User: Which sequence fits this backbone?
């Protein structure tokens, strides 16, 4: 099964897609189920609001070095191409354990975090990889991140 190429314009588009996946059922074109995808994306949506986890040495040094050398270019490429590379590394604490029974609860939590992010008007924490960004850049990266992960879930009604 191949992943889908999704095109979201807003965070609300991602919420609608997640609701549809919960309602219709889905098959996985990747390793994560809906609760894992939403839990992971929920973490990354909260980090700019609440702060990013502090990685241990030497990871923090590697991130700092990447931020000052490659981070800006990576951010621009992701925003320009509107895509994350499949198989990119992530923080292990943002990878959730599989549990299909948690899909509805994960969606409820994700919806709350999306509303919180959308209504946020204060400063945002800089990304450990991309550095300081505008609210619009943070939001657009979140939308692209959600397209990437939700594309690995294929609605049962979508299949022929």
Assistant:
């Amino acid at each position: 099964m191949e992943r889908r190429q999704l095109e979201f314009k807003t965070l609300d588009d991602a919420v609608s897609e997640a609701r549809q996946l919960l309602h219709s059922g889905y098959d996985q074109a990747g390793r994560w189920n809906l609760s894992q995808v939403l839990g992971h994306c929920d973490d990354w949506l909260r980090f700019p609001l609440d702060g990013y986890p502090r990685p241990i040495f030497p990871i923090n040094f590697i991130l700092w070095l990447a931020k000052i050398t490659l981070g800006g270019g990576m951010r621009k490429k992701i925003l320009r191409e509107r895509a994350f590379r499949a198989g990119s590394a992530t923080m292990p604490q943002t990878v959730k354990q599989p549990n299909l029974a948690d899909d509805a609860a994960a969606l409820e939590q994700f919806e709350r975090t999306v509303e919180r992010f959308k209504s946020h008007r204060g400063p945002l924490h800089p990304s450990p990889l991309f550095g300081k960004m505008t609210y619009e850049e943070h939001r657009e990266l979140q939308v692209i991140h959600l397209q990437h992960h939700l594309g690995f879930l294929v609605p049962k009604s979508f299949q022929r």
